[in-house]
Protein 1
Amino acid sequence: MGGTKKLVFLAILTSLSVVLGIVDSQLSVFFAVIPGAKIGLANITIILAILYFNFADSFTMAFLKSLLIGFILGAVSTFVIGFSGTLFSFLGMYLVIRLSRNTFSMVGVSVIGGVLHALGQIIAVTLFYSSLATLLFVPQLVVISVFTGVATGLIANTIIRYIENAQIFPKQY
């Protein structure tokens, strides 16, 4: 994929991931019982970036998503905790997509990403606030991550079908 087309698609994915991340933070009120629980809508854009771009480009997009959401929503802690989840999720999904060669469906990839995102955030919160109490939320966050991962994976599947039918970009794996 050539320079301008690639840059435009990455910019669109990054912008969309930020918007979805902000929407997600507003929807988290529905998960108020469990702190940190979110749907993970921005995960969809990260899956797309992994599928259609190389490691450096897709990682840069994921990093920018976390950085911009951190700036928009508040504090350094927002960035640190958010990026920790994004990093775990990104690396896990990248490895599964690139190494498994279609062993996992996008729903499976998304579930793995959701669970790793939750674990990454729990680790960051535990270290950032020096409190082991956050570990009590691991079981609930993992269960929620499975359900939200299925939902975002199904949405990602639909978008991937549209992209492939339109033959817009070749996959990178």
Protein 2
Amino acid sequence: MLAQLLRRMLLAQGLVGAGLGYWLFGSVVVSLVVAMLVPVATMALFIVVSALLSRGTETWDRWFRALRGEMVAGVEVFLLRQPWGRRPPRYLPSTGSTPRTPVVLVHGYLCNHRIWDRTIPQLRAQGHGVLAVDLEPVFLSFDDYAPLLEAAVATVLHQLAELSPAFHSKELSHD
């Protein structure tokens, strides 16, 4: 759902950019370039305003370094990764040689499971099974996501029980 919303926003921004580029320059090529730049410029504007409003006591050099990092991460996450995630989240087993405790990954506000794309392979290589959830539909109360989170935890507990029969028998004795 969030991915679809982001795709629609990118399409709208691209169409506005293309129209603006053609209106200002009368060139199809320039309008296509402007169409690609408008989403990046919109995101950059939000990041800069947010960074200015929340600026602390750090030096300007550190502030600009953090701003550059936010811009790169913003393009990667919000323009290249999250809008294009169509596969629903699922449990991914460990790829490491020593099985370890499975993990549920929960994203923050206005993100989806694609935020964990770099983290998941590292956790799996270390022996953790991983389930990254999508808290959707967006804009609900956190309480509305409780059934989804409970189901994710149940999935991970099931995987843990398969790894450790002792855990499974302990859990059953507490019911």
Protein 3
Amino acid sequence: MLTLAKKSETYFRDYVRGGGKENRKRQVSRIVEFLDWVESTEKVISLHGLGKRHVIGFWKAHRHFSDETAYKYWLGIAKLWQWIGKHEEPPAPHKVQTLQKSVLNDTVFTEISTTIKAARASRNLTIQQLANVSGCEPLLIADIEAGKTNMLLSDILRLFEILKIKFSFSTPNFTSGTPFSPQ
């Protein structure tokens, strides 16, 4: 247990005394894990120095959490926020499963850039939110949406998966002459 967790022990002691003891002990262990992560990566030494940036960094570092586990951690962080007097809720984890369904189900796009941009806009996601969910850099997503061609197929496929974009390839009909025409 690092310094931030030790500073929180008074909150923990009072919290574990009431209610369901086992659940509260697990919740405290999640809070301690969050505080230890923040202290070891962000070098925060005061509880009141915690902010949204630290929570977002925690979610980025723990993308592998299932929705249920991430929600349990979020509840613990929300309790910590309450203890230290934060007036807003902490940022919730952005998970692939929580994205809204597309309203562009039957729309056909021929360019990757317009496809990704339209799917992102239909879900009311900013480039930063999509970057948080996908693990891609925001600049890369902006470049893809701008039509820049220097990108990895794995990045595009990851964005397609997150945005639930279905795609198919069609080959031209080569029976009527040459497949390519000079321009």
